[in-house]
């Protein structure tokens, strides 16, 4: 199976498939690739907050948990992104998306913030396949958890909530810096060329709404225009 075809079936960009393949992900079948992703992207095996699995000897009633200050701040930030996107304010949305990622990095791996589909797509724009159906979803304003978003992205093989959160956090800042290059790797070069070709066909970002101009470069937003 070609990596481009596998990327489309997984709902991720070809560059992501190439990157994971270098880490050992099988690319011959969809089923083997999905098993590898589930095994190697478990909460305890990804960067970020350490996953802890505690089992009590006897189950105890779980009291109602009030939203933490971080939960409230994250969801408020998500609302601001959604509002900016709905109004076509790509510049404001880009800045707020970077800030929300920083908040998500402080959250635990079992966090379950509720953002609109539009906001989740903005967070995962760098990761999603250019032709992913979720980019054109009709219910972009619906509030969903990471688990629910994973089911919307891939109904046949839902993404686990912790995978959605991990990719939304973007610890390596790939959304800003781009994916690291692998000199001499024809597969990576071909995958990136295909990505650029697909994106070049779009009049502007389908994530941030078509207003006649493209999404501003987040590198510029983060550096203030400094090189």
Explained architecture:
The protein is mainly α and 227 residues long. It has a domain at 67-223. Helix content is 48%, strand content 2%. α2 (14-22) runs antiparallel to α10, α4 (69-86) packs antiparallel against α5 (90-104) and α7 packs across α8. The relative contact order is 0.15.
Number of strands: 2
Task: Count the DSSP helices.
Answer: 11
Q: Summarize the helix and strand pattern as letters.
A: HHHHHEHEHHHHH
The radius of gyration is 18 Å
Low-confidence blocks of residues: 44-57, 202-227
Approximate strand percentage: under 5%
Mean pLDDT: 75
Percent helix: 40-55%
Q: Name the structural class.
A: mainly alpha
Distance between the termini: 40 Å
Q: Given the C-alpha coordinates, what overall shape results?
A: globular
For the biggest sheet, the summary is: 2 strands, antiparallel
Keywords:
227 residues; mainly alpha; two-stranded antiparallel ribbon; 48% helix
How are the SSEs ordered, and which strands pair?
Elements: H1 3-10, H2 14-22, H3 30-40, H4 69-86, H5 90-104, E1 115-116, H6 117-123, E2 143-144, H7 146-153, H8 161-169, H9 174-177, H10 186-200, H11 218-223
Antiparallel strand pairs: 1-2
Brief sketch in words of this structure:
The protein has 227 residues and is mostly helical.
